[in-house]
Amino acid sequence: MSESLVYPVSGEWAHRAFIDADKYQALYKRSINDPDGFWGDEARRRLDWIKPFTKVKNTSFGPGDVHIKWFEDGVTNIALNCIDRHLDKRGDQVAIIWEGDDPSRSLKITYRQLHERVSRFANVLKAHGIEKGDTVTIYMPMIPEAAYAMLACARIGAIHSVVFGGFSPDSLAGRIKDCGSKLLITSDEGLRGGKRVPLKANVDTALEKVPFIVNKVIVVKHTGGDIHWEKGRDFWLHEEIENVSPDCPVTPVGAEDPLFILYTSGSTGTPKGVVHTTAGYLLYAAMTHQYVFDYHDGDIYWCTADVGWVTGHSYILYGPLCNGATTLMFEGVPTYPTISRFWDVVDKHKVNTFYTAPTAIRSLMGAGEEPVKKTSRASLRLLGTVGEPINPEAWEWYYKVVGDSRCPIMDTWWQTETGGHLITPLPGVTPLKPGSATKPFFGIKPEIVDGSGVVQEGPAEGILVIADSWPGQMRTVFGDHDRFIQTYFASFPGKYFSGDGARRDADGDYWITGRVDDVINVSGHRMGTAEVESALVAHERVAEAAVVGFPHDIKGQGIFAYVTLINGHEPSDKLRKDLVAWVRQEIGPIASPDIVQFAPGLPKTRSGKIMRRILRKIAENEFQALGDTSTLADPAVVEDLIRERKKL
Ligand code: WT7
Question: For 111-130, how does the pLDDT look when each residue is reduced to its tens digit (9 = 90+)?
Fold first, then answer.
């Protein structure tokens, strides 16, 4: 029904935007037919090079040989592009507006100040032995020092691995071990919604679990809370920066040298270290930031993500700063001190562009219009959404209530792996349909295939793949290139497998239908069902666990866990609570199961494979449509699961 709704591009936007419909057609065509010409021009225009590249695209998705290189013989540096080159023209312009959890605390950091702080931080890293190619783990709250830390790594060619501050010591330990960081950057505590987050204490616990890897911890003093101190290992940033020079020349870095690792969940196994490299990533983040948000000089831009996720990397930091933008960084949560906080911040800093996740919109929708309407929001011009499919009801509310029916909404589909937006409207080009991510960005060739890889033409529904490379895509899984090939290029040889399903309508617009693998999307956070299962079975009373997603009004998807107890242990409400707390502690609050159902038996085939399709249906309370259960080793377990589900 809502599919017939279309919001055309307004005259004002067609006039203002960098890209209008004619330009889009022409540029899109060139980007596909002449990628070398198109991307070569963009890379020369948008980035400063220490040594210019002579080759543009050298990529293959196979079958057989998979390799991805862009601008491979060029030499540049991320900090040069995001900071140094802006100093002449906009040294005194604000680069970062920081808004604290406590509304009385905010800061403005100019490009010149950013330059000095990042340079000093980089010298601290050097003084502690960090060199080009080393990995550095960053476990920080949303404070400016998180940005300085990332840019300091980039300045000296070190590879950062940011771990979201909401992850547990165990999750942090696993990520440290995987990439082998010798140095870790954290802060005493974080602040969220008035509550303290014990970051340094988590680091201490994590480092006990993986000894002899990290030997230096740089600590940012933020709350001033009491922390344990390990002499010789722990160093205060504010003391260290006093001992170093404010000058730190940028280290020349190859276009294909790694910029960062970011761990993300997949269908199986432990989280993968997604590796992004330098020039192609930055180019793609900057170009999408400029065109999708139609960023013009002087605009105030706010992305509410955390730097622990790729959205924070590409669209709080790297894309905006490469464009010389003013980017807002928010430490807090949407509901503190009041449910009007987002809109108060918009008014306080005169934000023009606001980019958030559907889950935030849905949770604010629950409180009604009044907390929004009592604020002005007159500065807002454009809205964005990312992280999960946005339901048309939430889209309409965002459009009408938050944007006063004046601001177009960019529903941006992309992934940690893609570096930047792949399917998205452009404000001067695309008629908007609530719930559709609409059309491909320049250089992106989406296709819909069926289960056996046959490409579907015209209106179709199936699996979303991308037929050719773009500069921002990931290059490998850290330490496991084979896993990279297997995960993304083995399912449909010659194409990048996104893991998402999609439908293309008669206008050629794409509608993302959600993951087709065992990944669930909880409040826009990606979670592997296998990770939650392995946390559950690590509990002393659990014999077996199967985890599936189920529709959740606010979170998009919730986590449903079926748990089989070890013989001799009885189900109880207390144990149910204990198991939720256990997963929270093992992985982090974002992985807490919403529902735990005790299941004496799980539906398995005769070869022992759990039939998740059945578990998903039961979790959704869809008992009629279970499909064929005749191949189950013991079809009777299904009856029992349904009976127990009805009691919950
Ligand atoms: C998965 C990627 C990309 C930054 C945040 C999440 C889902 C993302 C949309 C959207 C429908 C979306 C997909 C994708 N997703 N954006 N606009 N519409 N679904 O990054 O953690 O790597 O998750 O998020 O399922 O595969 P991520």
Answer: 999 999 999 999 999 999 99
**Ligand 1 mean position, distance from CA 357 (Å):** 10
CB 456, CB 508: distance < 8 Å: no
* Ligand 1 centre distance from Cα of residue 329 (Å): 21
| Span from the CA of 240 to the centroid of ligand 1 (angstroms) | 39
Please, which residues bridge with residue 7 across strands? 432
For 276, residues 6+ apart whose C-beta sits below 8 A from its C-beta are 258, 259, 260, 262, 313, 419, 472, 474, 475
Ligand 1 environment, Cβ below 6 A: 264, 310-311, 386-389, 411-416, 437, 499-500, 512, 515, 521, 526
Specify the residue with its C-alpha closest to ligand 1, atom 1.
Answer: 415
Residues composing the chain: 648
The total number of structural domains in the chain stands at 2
pLDDT digits (tens, 9 = 90+) for 506-559: 999 999 999 999 999 999 999 999 999 999 999 999 999 999 999 999 999 999
3 has pLDDT over 60? no
Long-range contacts of 452-458 (CB under 8 A, 24+ apart): 453/491, 453/492, 453/493, 453/495, 456/504, 458/504, 458/506
The reply to whether 202 falls in a domain is yes
Q: Which of 189, 224, 254 is the last residue of a domain?
A: 254
Alpha carbon of 100 to ligand 1 centroid (Å): 27
The rounded Å distance from CA 583 to ligand 1 centre is: 23
Task: Choose the final residue of a domain: 196, 219, 254.
Answer: 254
CA 135, CA 213: separation in Å to the nearest integer? 11
258 beta partners: 277
Ligand-binding annotation for 343, yes or no, is no
Residue nearest to ligand 1 atom 2, measured at CA: 415
Per-residue pLDDT reduced to its tens digit, 254-274 = 999 999 999 999 888 899 999
Domain around 200: 113-254
Write the ipTM: 0.99
By alpha-carbon position, which residue is closest to atom 14 of ligand 1?
A: 415
C-alpha dist (Å) from residue 33 to 95, 291, 444: 36, 20, 11
The angle at the Cα of 183, spanning 177 to 188, to the nearest 5 degrees, equals: 105
Measured CA to CA, the distance from residue 93 to residue 321 in angstroms comes to 12
Which atom belonging to ligand 1 lies closest to the Cα atom of 514?
Answer: 25
Which of 274, 356, 473, 500 for mutating ligand 1's site (highest number of atoms within 8 Å of CB)?
500
The answer to the question of residue 363 being in a domain is no
